Amino acid sequence: MNVELYTVDYCPYCHKALRFLDEHNVDYTNHDITADEDEKRKELGKKYNIKGDVTVPQIFINGERIGGYTDMIKLYELGKLKF
After folding, report:
1. In b/e form, how buried is each residue of 26-64, taking b as 16+ CB within 10 angstroms?
2. Interatomic CA distance for residues 34 and 72, integer angstroms
3. Burial, 12: exposed, middle or buried (Cβ in 10 Å; 0-12, 13-18, 19+)?
4. How many domains does one find in the chain?
5. Non-local CB neighbours of 51 within 8 Å, separated by 6+ positions
6. 39 is in which domain, residue-wise?
7. Cα–Cα distance between 60 and 20 in angstroms, integer?
8. How far apart (Å, rounded) are the C-alpha atoms in residues 36 and 34?
9. Does any domain span residue 83?
10. What are the backbone angles phi and psi of residue 66, rounded to the nearest 5°?
11. Distance of CA 22 to the CA centre of its chain
């Protein structure tokens, strides 16, 4: 399973997502976009055709955008995401 996240260092939901993945021993790649946040958010929006504001974290599993932390937890609780 390939898991990638785009996060910023001051975001509580980003920290929750990383902690959840760590607790479930999931290997992931974290792209911290804090240093160039505005530009990186624009790039993510264009690259993944995200309408409106690009929030963080943005979580991708096997190349598919699943959304943010609450979206990931919902999928996990519904049994649609297994680690």
Report:
1. eebeeeebeeebeebbeebeeeeeeeeebebbbbbbeee
2. 22
3. exposed
4. 1
5. 45
6. 3-77
7. 15
8. 6
9. no
10. -105, -10
11. 14
Beta bridge partners of 32: 7
pTM: 0.93
Please identify which residue in the block is written with the tokens 């190349």. Answer: 63
pLDDT digits (tens, 9 = 90+) for 20-66: 999 999 999 999 999 999 999 999 999 999 989 999 999 999 999 99
For tokens 């760590």, what's the residue? 22
Structure tokens at 5: 């996240």
Residue 71 lies in a domain: yes
For residue 82, tell me if it sits in a domain: no
pLDDT at 82 over 90: no
pLDDT tens-digit map of 40-52: 999 999 999 998 9
**DSSP-derived secondary structure for 47-60:** HTT--S---S-EEE
Distance CA 59, CA 6 (A): 7
